[in-house]
Amino acid sequence: MIVIVKQANNKEQQDIELDKSLKILKRKLIKEGTFQVLKEKRHYQKPSEIRHQKEMTLKHKRKILKRSKDKKKGNQSAYRQNKKR
């Protein structure tokens, strides 16, 4: 990752260029996933918590996929009936 900072004549231009370069750097770090790793590493999680979290995300993804398949089939009312129970 290469960040190029241009030299500016006055102080205001230097601040603007610095802000732009920081935004670019932040976007690149988010795209690479570095911020997500830092967020995960802030607090220690027990292995059981990590497993539980993965299971819950898989359940959520499956639920969304099932809902989208039902919508394509036109079986939307079955989802609503199950939700009322």
TrEMBL record:
Q: Does the keyword Ribonucleoprotein apply?
A: yes
Q: Which InterPro entries match?
A: Ribosomal_bS21, Ribosomal_bS21_sf
Ranges for the region named Disordered are: 54-85
| Biological processes per GO annotation | translation
Give GO cellular component annotations, separated by semicolons: ribonucleoprotein complex; ribosome
Give GO MF terms, alphabetically.
Answer: structural constituent of ribosome
Which residue stretches does the UniProt record annotate as biased composition, category Basic residues?
59-74
Q: Which UniProt keywords apply?
A: Ribonucleoprotein, Ribosomal protein
Polar residues: compositionally biased ranges: 75-85
Q: Which family does it belong to?
A: Belongs to the bacterial ribosomal protein bS21 family.
Protein name as annotated: 30S ribosomal protein S21
Q: Which species is the source of this protein?
A: marine sediment metagenome
